[in-house]
Amino acid sequence: MNSIFLVLKREYLTRVKKKSFLLTTILTPLIFPAIIFTIVYFATREKESRSDEILVIDESGLFSNAFDITSFQFTYIDEDVAEAKKNFGDKGAFGLLYLPDVDVQPDKIQFDGFEFYSKTNASMGSLSSMERAIRGRLEDLKLDRSGLDKEVIDNLKVSVSLNSFNITDAGESKKSNSKLSFAIGYGTGFLIYMFIFVYGSQIMQSVLDEKTSRIVEVIVSSVRPFNLMLGKVLGVGAVGFTQLLIWFVLIGVLSTAGLTIMSGGGSDAIMEAASQQVPAEAVEMTQQQVAAAEIQEMIASVPVVKILACFLFFFLGAYFLYGALYAAIGSAVDSIQDAQQFMFPIILPILAAIMSMFFVLEDPNGGLAVTLSLIPFTSPIIMMARIPFGVPDWQLALSMVLLIAGFIGTIWMAGRVYRIGILMYGAKVNWKTISKWFTMKV
Hints:
Layout: H1 2-16, H2 19-49, E1 52-58, E2 72-76, H3 81-87, E3 95-99, E4 115-118, H4 124-146, H5 150-156, E5 165-167, E6 173-175, H6 178-212, H7 215-219, H8 225-263, H9 267-275, H10 287-300, H11 304-332, H12 336-362, H13 367-372, H14 379-386, H15 393-421, H16 431-437
Parallel strand pairs: 1-2, 1-3
Antiparallel strand pairs: 3-4, 5-6
């Protein structure tokens, strides 16, 4: 046990004392929001400032001034369609929109023949905007020719806002927010996915470095191979755990500071609006205080403590499960290139989980979601995607138990490979060779 702790301590301190670790840990919570903000800012700014020209051939004459799309300038021309298709690029236009002569009858529903030509594919949003503009003009024309009063029709339209609530076991209602649950589920699942690759690769590289430099031959003379592997896995895992805790503290401090600044001293009113679920408009507050109250109300709608606790558990469980496998691969090969053939079966469940997450977020209580959240190789990502929406306690407990059993099993299997592979040099290793190492005695 003492040897495991010594290896753990060495792996932990070696990484934590690096300047790169400190910079990454402190700057990451700041860099990622800054990158996202910069991308959104420039993308929005470019979209607003850019105005590509689209030539319009309107054979019916019914669609003049029908298009009001910010990113495009529509120029109506009177040319032959065949000639316009050949020449619109030479005129510097992005595309050509052809609107055929249509017969607008009150009982006609389907209108065809509208075409858009461009050198490159237009975005889905742009095409949808043009379709909406065409559909809106046709609906207005049908309404005018039907003899109905447009104002009366408009007054028949209504706007509905559906508020969702969760009912607790005690019968109390608590406001829920599906959009926030979706964002948290995706974010936490993706973080675990990312950490598995980052820290798993660190373990494999550490094992390979010691093996190729022959340092491991000296180490195993005083430390059992299994203890050495377990110490490495625990040491690198402790680094990741430390990094996560620091991030949680930084994000908590920055969020609290931001809400305090937004509240402008009106924290009592904000807390009243948020905790008692009083509409922000019902309490006398400034616009910034209203925004702060809405943010606090959103945060109060999800079980933050439960999500953080489960995230730490599933992060550690996923790390131990996959980290041991990465260590086994590192011990079995002599170079990173040789390791590639063994990587795919390991990363396949992770990829399956991340690809299934979108379907799980759409139906967090469906059969696919429940099944994948119980399988140890996919449960860390899928269960974290489900937790913000609410998961039955028995499913969460069963998933945790199965994950513990899973990483204990993988650590045992990895230990059987590690004890042989760490001292094997120059041998051509394949899956058949590795299978023999399970029963080989040393």
